[in-house]
Amino acid sequence: MIPVYNEEESVMHLYKAVTKALLDLKRPYEILLVDDGSKDDTYSNALALARSDSRLKIVKLKRNYGQTTALHAGFQNARGKVIVTMDGDLQNDPDDIPVMLNKMDEGYDIVLGWRHDRKDFFISRKLPSKIANWLVRKVTGIPVKDNGCAIRAYRAEIIKNFPMYSEMHRLMPVITALVGAKFTQIKVKHHPRKFGHSKYGLSRIYKVLLDLVALKTIFSFFYIPLFGFGVLALAVGLISFAIFTIGILFLFIYPGQSLVTLFGASALCAALSLFLYFLGIICHLIYRTGNLKIENLYRIKFR
Ligand code: UDP
Ligand code: MG
Q: Which residues are placed with Cβ below 5 angstroms of ligand 2, an ion?
């Protein structure tokens, strides 16, 4: 399954290369192209190819929604038990698909590609991605080497309904692994972009960082919201108490001086502490009565 946005020159080469790799496999397959609202001839080029090959399916999105949403549409429309994703710009190599499928046969839920010899600019692409990968490993403890590599194989039922928003497709392997999916990584080939141009700038780094913060918060506090909020409430409560004590001391040391600011700050912290505590209670009640599981939150299904 391949999301494509303004890749008119690549479509034909892509189709040929993928078909060649898949025909050699002698397994049933379909190629699903998700046209993410392209403004060039991507869709008509794909349609022309689909007319003579029933194994090529096209999902057309009404406007450009972004790669994450395009992938989601693809996951929902794909019919295979295993879904392989890759980029539509010929940077991934379809010859890696058979290797991935063989790995899937060994019983993995996800097989991830790792662009060990990546053909992109160093400063604008490889360096930021190295730092981001390191950060994801540190924060989540999941040793994924290349979160940005698009060529991956998934067992379909795991990711069919995965909630995809922001840049979440990058963190999917990490999230599913945190819940218990079995994954492995293999070295894959990578080529420079031949046609068109990359659709991203550095802004994606900011989005990925926010996703990572959200992910860490959810996984840290999901099962123990009261504890998380309780610790915060206690800390703010102690600060309130400390300011109050200083206020009382000042009352004796500098009699007659206005201490409105100090006592005001103390009262504010006390109120914040109570607020956090009750927020924790509410979250706790939702958690206890909702019978929630993190698998349900990410709609991840295991056998
Ligand atoms: N893509 C998409 N919608 C978008 C942006 C990109 O479907 O809004 C597709 C694009 O056509 C390509 C893949 O997502 O097949 C990866 O995009 P790109 O090659 O621009 O990203 P990069 O390889 O530079 O990270
Ligand atoms: Mg690319």
A: 87, 89, 91
pTM listed for this prediction: 0.85
> How much distance in Å is there from the Cα of 68 to the middle of ligand 1?
10
**Ligand 1 atom closest to residue 64's alpha carbon, by position in its atom list:** 8
Residues 108-127: pLDDT tens digits?
999 999 999 999 888 888 99
CA 89 to ligand 2 centroid distance, Å: 5
Residue 49 has which token pair?
């190819």
Minimum-distance ligand 1 atom for the alpha carbon of 88? 15
Neighbouring-strand partners of residue 155: 82
- pLDDT tens, position by position, 209-264: 899 998 988 888 777 777 888 899 999 999 999 999 999 999 999 988 889 999 99
3-state secondary structure of 120: coil
* 4 Cα: distance to centroid of ligand 2 (angstroms): 10
Cα 131 to Cα 204: distance, rounded to the nearest angstrom: 13
**Got the DSSP string for 36-91?**
-S-SSSHHHHHHHHHHT-TTEEEEE-SS---HHHHHHHHHHH--SSEEEE--SSS-
Ligand nearest the Cα atom of residue 197: 1
Domain 2-220 listed as CATH 3.90.550.10: yes
Nearest protein CA to atom 23 of ligand 1, as residue = 198
Task: Give the span between the Cα atoms of 248 and 275, in whole angstroms.
Answer: 24
